[in-house]
């Protein structure tokens, strides 16, 4: 069951919980995780410094009550959104989260060690962990009434906030983190000489600062961030400093939309070139000379830049539109008419059978086939992998005839859908429809397949039925044969919208069931074997041709 509540100015509060095997559940107080970007937390504070005391007690009580009710064991986090004097439950994270460090700092309890002991069957009281002893760790200041100590965690990542948090890769030339009173560093890959590759989590190190109160903790975090030196890759340290110094953050009036509403946080004055970079530059020039042909004619580039030849000025020269400035259009050396003529001589494939027998006939052929049928997803990966902004129509068309001639036995090729539109329009500046049309001409004998998100088609919001129908009509006209239709919640009514639209357009309906859990365990409700069997029957009754488990 999903319950929705509109919260316009929310504050994100979570409670750190630990439960053992003897019905003991304790909390390690609350954390303020309001400062986040795209639901990814950036700065976490424990305890929440600006939370009303009565509201805080209600949140802590509800969190413990919930976990006691379910008999929770091990470490976990109960998360809430707060607006005004009301709190709303979001979810339980049944694990130790990245920000557990601030809870450790304010209570002095090692949560990792504790959860391992609990898993071994040790009770919390025998570890000396009771709610009274945890509460005694936090004291109220007689002057301000605020509780302390306070701990702040800042996630230092290799991202450039000025470029929409674009990941920064390369070699870390200098890694010199700051230390000092109240500073803790949790990290693994940060070191001089380490190489940050594209295949990574952008989190480099967590900097945790503890102080007597909120303002002392922020001051220590600010000092440590300013003294941290990381050269060779770009980090988000200037962005974090902008957040820590912002009046809204310091006054406790920030909401979960704080970063989205304050674009100025992303920008900062570029720092002067460091002495290390100057020395590196001078050494390179002294030893190897200027590495540019403008100054040093002896410099020979390793290879010529991979830029396609100038675009033709008219349609007649290549048989395709020029694309008005897009580098993705075929250059002069690509003769599409010759290529397509060659493809027309390709062997018969399942596309041929589909044209002769129709979707129902193709489904019968599939059911009678004893061999494993293969769908090639290479060209779809060209839309959604590291090649996403590099795999152009020009590149795809170059290899397309090889598919037609060398792999006619493929059942299908997933060439479209998913991220195609976003990548084609925003990055490559080309038409995904034209891409589909050219691929269809070059590969006439293999069915094309695409992913469609039920009523969402290839977007992330529900569209009217007539839009879904028209989209499917056009997709079939441009060359899509098989539509893999899914809904993340297996909601049959959303699936039926896509099923009906594809069926009416004359496409092959491949209805997908999103699978989770262990169907062999009848206690894991609601996603039992009977649930999936019943869903499969309903999809068959909805006139799908192929069943898919996603």
Automatic annotation (TrEMBL):
GO molecular function, one term: metal ion binding
A GO CC term attached to the entry: cytoplasm
Entries under InterPro entries matching the protein: Aldolase_TIM, ATP-grasp, Biotin_carboxylation_dom, Biotin_COase_C, CPAse_ATP-bd, PCB-like, PYR_CT, Rudment_hybrid_motif
Name this protein carries in UniProt: Pyruvate carboxylase
Domain Pyruvate carboxyltransferase: 372-550
GO BP annotations, alphabetical order: gluconeogenesis
UniProt entry tagged with the keyword Transmembrane: no
Domain Biotin carboxylation: start-end pairs: 1-264
Coiled coil: none
Organism, as annotated: Cystoisospora suis
CDD domains reported for this sequence: DRE_TIM_PC_TC_5S
């Amino acid at each position: 069951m999903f319950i929705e509540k509109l919260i316009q100015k929310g504050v994100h509060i979570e409670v750190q919980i630990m439960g053992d095997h003897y019905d003991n559940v304790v909390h390690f107080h609350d954390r303020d995780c309001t400062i986040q970007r795209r639901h990814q937390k950036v700065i976490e504070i424990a305890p929440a410094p600006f939370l009303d005391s009565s509201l805080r007690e209600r949140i802590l009580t509800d969190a413990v009550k919930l976990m006691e009710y379910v008999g929770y064991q091990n470490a976990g986090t109960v998360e809430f959104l707060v607006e005004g004097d009301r709190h709303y439950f979001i979810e339980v994270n049944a694990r130790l989260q990245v920000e557990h460090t601030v809870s450790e700092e304010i209570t002095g309890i090692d949560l990792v060690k504790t959860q391992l002991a609990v898993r071994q069957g040790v009770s919390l009281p025998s570890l000396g962990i009771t709610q009274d002893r945890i509460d005694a760790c936090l004291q109220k200041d007689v002057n301000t009434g605020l509780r302390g100590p306070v701990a702040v965690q800042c996630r230092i990542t290799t991202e450039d906030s000025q470029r929409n948090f674009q990941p920064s890769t390369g070699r870390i030339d200098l890694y010199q983190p700051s230390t000092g009173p109240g500073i803790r560093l949790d990290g693994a890959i940060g070191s001089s000489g380490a190489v940050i590759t594209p295949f990574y989590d952008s989190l480099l190190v967590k900097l945790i600062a503890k102080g007597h109160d909120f303002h002392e903790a922020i001051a220590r975090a600010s000092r440590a961030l300013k003294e941290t030196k990381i050269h060779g890759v770009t980090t988000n340290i200037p962005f974090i400093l902008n957040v820590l110094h912002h009046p809204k953050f310091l006054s406790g009036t920030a909401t979960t939309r704080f970063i989205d509403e304050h674009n100025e946080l992303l920008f900062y004055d570029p720092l002067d070139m460091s002495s290390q970079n100057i020395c590196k530059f001078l050494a390179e020039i002294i030893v190897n000379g200027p590495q540019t042909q403008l100054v040093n004619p002896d410099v020979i580039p390793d290879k010529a830049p991979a830029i396609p030849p100038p675009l033709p000025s008219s349609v007649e020269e290549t048989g395709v539109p020029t694309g008005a400035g897009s580098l993705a259009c075929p250059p002069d050396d690509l003769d599409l008419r010759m290529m397509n003529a060659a493809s027309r001589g390709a062997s018969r494939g399942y596309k041929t059978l589909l044209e002769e027998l129709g979707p129902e006939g193709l489904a019968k052929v599939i059911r009678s086939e004893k061999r494993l049928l293969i769908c090639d997803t290479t060209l779809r990966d060209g839309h959604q992998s590291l090649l996403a902004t590099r795999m152009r129509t020009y590149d795809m068309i170059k290899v397309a005839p090889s598919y037609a001639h060398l792999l006619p036995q493929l059942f299908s090729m997933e060439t479209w859908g998913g991220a195609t539109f976003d990548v084609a329009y925003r990055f490559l500046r080309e038409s995904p429809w034209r891409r589909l049309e050219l691929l269809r001409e070059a590969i006439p004998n293999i069915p094309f397949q695409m992913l469609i998100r039920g009523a969402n088609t290839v977007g992330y919001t529900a569209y009217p039925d007539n839009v879904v129908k028209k989209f499917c009509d056009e997709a079939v006209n441009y060359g899509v044969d098989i539509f893999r239709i899914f809904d993340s919640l297996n909601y049959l009514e959303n699936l039926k919208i896509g099923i009906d639209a594809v069926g009416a357009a004359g496409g092959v309906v491949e209805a997908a069931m999103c699978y989770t859990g262990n169907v062999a365990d009848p206690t894991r409700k609601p996603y039992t074997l009977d649930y999936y069997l019943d869903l499969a029957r309903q999809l068959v009754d909805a006139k799908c041709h192929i069943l898919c488990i996603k």
